[in-house]
Design goal:
This protein is α/β, with parallel strands linked by helices and 139 residues long. The protein contains 6 helices and 5 strands. It has a single domain, classed as Response regulator (Rossmann fold). It comes from Algoriphagus aestuariicola.
Length: 139
């Protein structure tokens, strides 16, 4: 892609489905060359990643967080509640994109009320949808 991605050192995928994470990683690897792509299978691991806790200590902070809504345990909405409590530094470095199979208009409306959520994208992630996220958020 373009030099817009110079600021994009890392992309974090948060989805409980391993096959979905694999597929999205393949799509992203075709779009970016030097960006670290990390996938976690729970909202809790996503929060721990952002905080650099445990196994995630020292990992680069993501510029984009692709977040599934429907996950067991903490779901995407729970993640967003906890994310909202994190430092402004984390918020300044990251944007959140809901990447979901949900077709519920209430989910889209709820997401629109959360300032941290920049986009609501239907799964699966496509190269075109990724490019749109980059163009709209990394100019």
């Amino acid at each position: 892609m373009t030099e817009k991605l110079d600021k994009l050192d890392c992309i974090l995928l948060i989805d409980d489905d391993e096959a979905t994470n694999f597929y999205h990683r393949v799509i992203l690897e075709d779009e970016v060359d030097k960006t670290y792509i990390h996938a976690v299978k729970s909202a809790r691991d996503g929060i721990n990643y952002l905080l650099g806790k445990g196994d995630f200590e020292g990992n680069p902070q993501p510029g984009i967080i692709f977040l599934d809504i429907n996950m067991p345990g903490l779901d995407g909405w729970d993640f967003l509640s906890e994310y909202n409590e994190l430092s402004a530094d984390i918020h300044d470095r990251s944007i959140v994109v809901l990447l979901t199979t949900s077709v519920n208009p209430d989910d889209r409306e709820r997401a629109a009320q959360i300032p941290a959520v920049r986009e609501f994208v239907s799964k699966p992630l496509t190269p075109e949808a990724f490019r749109k996220v980059v163009q709209e958020n990394f100019n």
